[in-house]
Design a protein that fits this description.
YqzM, transmembrane helix
Length: 45
């Protein structure tokens, strides 16, 4: 048995952590896109 498998730091599911990371990064870039789109729309007035 691998010695790293004996003492694991976290027993949580990795899919949950990767999902949270994906949602956080997607939300960040979506917010930047929305702000840039609003600036583009309002700059035409």
């Amino acid at each position: 048995m691998n010695k790293f498998e004996e003492d694991v730091q976290s027993k949580r599911n990795d899919a949950i952590d990767s999902g949270v990371g994906f949602v956080a990064s997607f939300g960040f870039f979506a917010t930047l896109f929305i702000i840039a789109s609003l600036v583009d729309v309002f700059s035409q007035f």
